[in-house]
Recover the amino acids of this structure.
């Protein structure tokens, strides 16, 4: 039986558990001094590859948030669970101007497109510039940022997903008690579930059912869309067409709508290859 519990401070950790990837965000202050701190309030904001953006949440008095607002740049570094002690060292409240990385075994390296340094021991790194800053209330600041570069250790690039997850061994934060005892898990126990495709005969009959007329060229293009996302593409395309006042999906209109939505061959290839 469920119970309606009181929503209280730190409800996202003490009442409702949100497992979150732990990263280290590196910044520079206006004097060029390095700051590093662990953050988990991070998620993708714009998933399309032509305008990739990331979203981060901060306590708005933190050195990291202040530096990002002042300089407009930062780096998201993803350490492995083997660096948990070093990662927690960056969580200490050092005075302003102290480089937390000096108290760890991490190695600073130049970033490719932004001024704040990256961390060599992190196998995946995201270099970012600010798109916009949103102050939610008196205590919280939110940043939507452009992803300028994704740096990945070379050996990971061509790995299958399971091998890559094991190699990354990313720490997942599970909250804390008393702001002193922090709980983590990491990717040493991975399970995969395979979602089977609709049977081909049913796929041809059901998945290509449309609510509008599609011309021969548009229908041919639709058949090239992977079965797993085909019905989603049909619904989205027809909704966009109706907004434009169209009564039929021509190949030209389909191409226009696909371009506007960022649904190009690179996106469709992901569903064919598995990412």
């Amino acid at each position: 039986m469920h119970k309606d519990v009181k929503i209280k401070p730190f409800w996202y950790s003490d009442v409702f558990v949100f497992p979150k990837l732990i990263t280290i965000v590196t910044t520079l202050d206006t004097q060029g001094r390095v700051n590093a701190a662990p953050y988990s309030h991070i998620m993708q904001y714009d998933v399309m590859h032509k305008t990739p953006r990331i979203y981060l949440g901060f306590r708005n008095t933190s050195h990291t948030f202040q530096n990002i607002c002042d300089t407009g740049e930062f780096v998201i570094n993803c350490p492995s669970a083997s660096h948990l002690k070093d990662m927690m060292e960056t969580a200490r409240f050092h005075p302003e101007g102290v480089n937390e990385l000096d108290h760890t075994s991490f190695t600073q390296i130049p970033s490719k497109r932004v001024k704040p340094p990256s961390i060599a021991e992190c196998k995946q790194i995201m270099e970012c510039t600010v798109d916009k800053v949103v102050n939610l209330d008196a205590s919280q600041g939110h940043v939507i940022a452009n992803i300028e570069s994704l740096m990945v250790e070379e050996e990971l690039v061509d790995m299958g997903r399971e091998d890559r997850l094991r190699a990354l061994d990313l720490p997942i934060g599970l909250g804390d008690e008393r702001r002193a005892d922090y709980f983590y898990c990491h990717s040493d126990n991975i399970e995969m579930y395979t979602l089977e495709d609709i049977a081909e005969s049913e796929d041809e009959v059901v998945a290509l059912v449309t609510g509008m007329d599609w011309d021969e060229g548009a229908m041919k293009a639709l058949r090239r869309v992977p079965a797993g996302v085909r019905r989603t593409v049909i619904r989205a395309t027809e909704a966009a067409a109706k907004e434009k006042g169209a009564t039929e999906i021509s190949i030209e209109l389909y191409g226009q709508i696909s371009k506007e939505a960022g649904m190009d061959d690179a996106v469709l290839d992901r569903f064919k290859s598995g990412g």
About this structure: The chain has two domains: 16-186, 200-273. The CA atoms of residues 55 and 144 lie 5 Å apart. Residues 200-273 form a domain with the Helicase, Ruva Protein; domain 3 fold (CATH 1.10.8). The first strand starts at residue 20 and ends at 21.
